[in-house]
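Researcher: Structure prediction, please.
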Amino acid sequence: MNFFLRWWSIAAILFIAGCSGGKNWHLREPLAVPLQPSLQQEVILARMEQILASRSLTEDEYAQLLYQRGVLYDSLGLQALARNDFTVALSMRPDIPEIFNYLGIYFTQAGNFDAAYEAYDSVLELDPTYNYARMNRGIALYYGGRYPVARDDLQAFYQDDPNDPFRSLWLYLVDKEIDPKKALVDLRQRYEQAKGGQWGWNIAEFYLGDISEKTLLARVREFSTDNTSLAEHLSETYFYLGKYYLSLGDTDSAETLFKLTVANNAHSFVEHRYALLELALLGDEEQDLTDSDPQ
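Model: Predicted structure follows.
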């Protein structure tokens, strides 16, 4: 079975890359078996179903368990089921900030930015210390084209943990839309001030021009201890490479890389979530170009 999954993974990713018209060198890079639901997750899900069906819970307990099942559904990529559980739980317990955070992510992925802003505002009203809502609101504002206010949120999120490379990378993506030259200077400063060792700083090094793309991808293998960490690191790396190529106007390579991001099934990762949005935006651009062609 493991051999079959590995073969299917490689075949699927090669097909994705080939169909998107990206550069052939992507096909020679590290590949991971797409992440699969674990036996433990399946057992937990089955047990939750039994408890919810037993009708033995109070309304508060029922809402909490629905929320927990929604989180599990989300981690498996079952967003429609997760959203249904979150909505029902929220009707019983409208004071769970985490639910508004998830709904804000879903609204952002759907391009419904005003609803996303409202969801994140609700999170911070319920719990002003919930900083991940500030990050997610900053990302929603970024995709909504509201770069200065996006920067305010992402700067505050970065300040909460300056050693987290991905906070710095998202801040850089926003800064680049405001002042590209200053964005690189600021990224360099944050990189030099941070305590090294975390994987994501390799991506920052690539953005800064300190290492090549080949070196970055070679380091993916060095930092990965098993298939799970390889799939997660690849999701992160391919997403930010996709953003890099998109900034160069190379939409074919960007599309390939966003598809490779999604192919690893790291559903809970922010890079997986927004690679789907990037693909939707690229699809909209292609449709606009098609619609504008003279008949």
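Model: DSSP finds 15 helices and no strands in the chain.
Researcher: Thanks, that helps.
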